[in-house]
Amino acid sequence: GAVVSQHPSWVICKSGTSVKIECRSLDFQATTMFWYRQFPKQSLMLMATSNEGSKATYEQGVEKDKFLINHASLTLSTLTVTSAHPEDSSFYICSARGVFGQPQHFGDGTRLSIL
Amino acid sequence: EDQVTQSPEALRLQEGESSSLNCSYTVSGLRGLFWYRQDPGKGPEFLFTLYSAGEEKEKERLKATLTKKESFLHITAPKPEDSATYLCAVQAVEKETSYDKVIFGPGTSLSVIP
């Protein structure tokens, strides 16, 4: 089956640090990648959608300058949380999809804790 | 407004006690409905895709069905390892903009007690 690798799985850092999270599709070409945020016992909250080679489309209320997304190839997307603060602490999950109509396949998430 | 709801919010079953989870949707331009399973601290794991009313898919103790307004995930003789949150998601295309979007439901938390 389709495999999506997300790295790191867990990161703790000081306030003001920038953190980069990688999302790779290992066995298929991901035309579209998605970034989600999930709070405890809540469902997924879509942050942004990115198509390979294009600028990401951010959902309302998500700061573009805070959450930088790069989707430079068909197998890799990155999310950089710039100048992270404690309120950015959360579980971030990426997903990847091949062509339209196919399901998204998810990474195992990154637990981000900002001290 | 496009919307996806799931019921019940939480379900507690005895091992072997079959039941169904519901996913109801109101969207225009449905292109597909997906079921996922999510374990704590993990990303969702893909289970099924359903594209048209009347379609059914099965995998082990799980069976997913689709009508024009809802989908059911039937769990037959569940085991404790089936305990997880089950999410449904609907893919739709907005008529006015042709914008493609996926809307996730809030999930059903299933606990199967030995």
Task: Provide an overview of this structure.
The complex is a heterodimer of chains A (115) and B (114). Chain A is built from no helices and 11 strands. Chain A has 115 residues and is mainly β. Chain A is globular and about 40 Å long. In chain A, a hairpin with a 2-residue loop joins strand 7 (67-73) and strand 8. The model of chain A has no long low-confidence stretch (mean pLDDT 93). By secondary structure, chain B is mostly beta strands. Chain B is 0% helix and 61% strand. Chain B has no helices and 11 strands. Chain B has strands spanning 3-7, 10-14, 19-26, 30-38, 45-50, 56-59, 62-66, 70-75, 84-93, 100-104, 108-113. In chain B, the strands form 2 sheets. In chain B, strands 2, 4, 5, 9, 10 and 11 form a 6-stranded mixed β-sheet that branches. Chain B has a 5-stranded antiparallel β-sheet with strand order 1-3-8-7-6, with no helix packed on it. Chain B is elongated, with a radius of gyration of 14 Å. The chains are: A mainly beta (115), B mainly beta (114). The A-B interface holds A 1-2, 4, 6, 34, 42-44, 46, 91, 93-95, 100-109, 111 and B 31-32, 34, 36, 41-46, 49, 51, 87, 89, 91, 100, 102, 104-107.
Fold topology:
The complex is a heterodimer of chains A (115) and B (114).
Chain A: E1 4-7, E2 10-13, E3 19-25, E4 32-38, E5 44-51, E6 57-58, E7 67-73, E8 76-81, E9 90-97, E10 105-106, E11 110-114
Parallel strand pairs in A: 2-11
Antiparallel strand pairs in A: 1-3, 3-8, 4-5, 4-9, 5-6, 7-8, 9-10, 9-11
Chain B: E1 3-7, E2 10-14, E3 19-26, E4 30-38, E5 45-50, E6 56-59, E7 62-66, E8 70-75, E9 84-93, E10 100-104, E11 108-113
Parallel strand pairs in B: 2-11
Antiparallel strand pairs in B: 1-3, 3-8, 4-5, 4-9, 6-7, 7-8, 9-10, 9-11
